[in-house]
Amino acid sequence: MCRLNSICRLSHTLIEPRACMNDSEWKTNDSNSVALEKFKRDSAYIDKNGKLRNFNHKKVSRKKSGSLRGRGWKYGSGFVDGIFPVLSPAAQEILDFVEKGVESERIWSSLDMFPATLDLWDDIFTVAVQLRMKKKWDSIISICRWILLRSSYKPDVICYNLLIDAFGQKLQYKEAESTYLQLLETRCIPTEDTYALLIKAYCLSGLLEKAEAVFAETRSYGLPSSAVVYNAYMNGLMKGGNSNKVEEIFQRMKRDACKPTTETYTMLINLYGKAGKAFMALKMFHEMMNQKCKPNICTYTALVNAFAREGLCEKAEEVFEQMQEAGLEPDVYTYNALMESYSRAGYPYGAAEIFSLMQHMGCEPDRASYNILVDAYGRAGLQDDAEAVFEDMKRVGITPTMKSHMVLLSAYSKMGSVNKCEEILNQMCKSGLKLDTYVLNSMLNLYGRLGQFGKMEEVLTVMEKGSYAADISTYNILINRYGQAGFIERMEEFFQLLPSKGLKPDVVTWTSRIGAYSKKKLYLRCLVIFEEMIDAGCYPDGGTAKVLLAACSNEDQKEQVTTVIRTMHKDMKTELPV
């Protein structure tokens, strides 16, 4: 059991775990001076500068008589103001042992060796929260099941909540459901967190009807509208790929007179930002300010990111300055978002200035910072500068990942440097990085763009014979490159292969196919394929409209295409530029 069993502390009084006690029963045999010393010790934390500091228990407690350990954990809140409690030696040993990935039986046997003290109860939940932050769901399940099945502790609602959360994250909704029923059978009273986590579990698995049923159940029990439940609902919808329903739940939240929180608005700003709707993200931010809801650093970073995705660097910088004026200090994520805005706007030296500013302000750049700077130079065609930053990253001790190599590969691919791209590919293999479909698609596209169809076919053969799953992007590249080069028959061969590969043509597939005929001014053939596209349930975008118009050889044809597209635009109620 290595050192884990040697650190059992026998000096503590054996009492019931505090989760099973009321406040009046909280007593130990320690003297007042020892208790005071323990209180001070438990008030220690390490700030972002690495200094040991103290905090006020009353200020940071999650609930009345709570603490940062065990009972104080609350879903959706994380740690207040970035405070992370220092793990006790026992908790650290348990965490280290569990993180080795040992099987559940060994973890259980090790925990069996500890005396059932209050300190162990605290340590176990501190470890569970640390594991949750690291997304180690299997380890959380193992520890919580030990409490339920092997320990002498009486499990409380926090234990069940952690289990529901872990099962939900693993998309094991039936186990999450079973845990909830077990909670009810033990006559443990579910909290708003319980319902929030169960709703999120269903949303992550795409079971929206079940999520709605749980939401209705909270009403039947007379529970008031809770921002925690609403936030979990929206978060689950976003992560479960049902973002279109988030705004509906948000409007329902306001109708129910449930006041949106900072987390609510931050989620929506993120939602609009990722959808390329920076103006809507800004509108949501203004609503937040009008409602006297105070934004935090995550809110500002989400808004900077929203503008960054659209390359609106001036707007991103305005938000950055607003954040500083509000007394918030930018962190590495905020600086990275601002760098990204300059990168996408085509200003690599602007991104480099932000990188230097970050270092000057004492904020250490992370791997993402270097990747963004490599990408910024690559987008601008400055591949030598991109490689210099890539080498700097290695020099400071940051190991390049697949993403790091991909942004460098993209930089040289943009310039058509085949030999250099192949060299980077070999470097990746030597570094032990496993090539994936995305990497091979990039090489496929490079060879196709340069007209090296023999090499393109070689890459396809490697994908088909290896463990790489060719996806719709793979075939879109093949269809587009052969179509643009005028090899219509080969293009059609790949298109006809899609059903046998279990792939469904998307808007890029259809547009690439139409584009091939458009280049030859085969207007009628383009219209036939366009009709096939609509019949297949795939709707055009701006790119489709553009290639259709390019196929036109007179004004009558242009008017016909414009009318069709505008009619479809009205039917779909979406913005389609023509």
UniProtKB/TrEMBL annotation:
Identify the domain of life. Eukaryota
Q: Which InterPro entries match?
A: PPR_rpt, PROP1-like_PPR_dom, TPR-like_helical_dom_sf
Q: Does the keyword Nucleotidyltransferase apply?
A: no
Q: Which residues form the PROP1-like PPR domain?
A: 351-466
Q: Which Pfam families match?
A: PPR_2, PPR_3, PPR_long
Q: Report keywords, A-Z.
A: Repeat
PPR repeat positions = 156-190, 191-225, 226-260, 261-295, 296-330, 331-365, 366-400, 401-435, 436-470, 471-505, 506-540
Q: Enumerate the Gene3D superfamilies for this protein.
A: Tetratricopeptide repeat domain
PROSITE patterns, per database record? PPR (PS51375)
Q: Which family does it belong to?
A: Belongs to the PPR family. P subfamily.
Record's protein name: PROP1-like PPR domain-containing protein
Organism, as annotated: Phaseolus vulgaris
The opening ranks of the lineage are:
Eukaryota, Viridiplantae, Streptophyta, Embryophyta, Tracheophyta
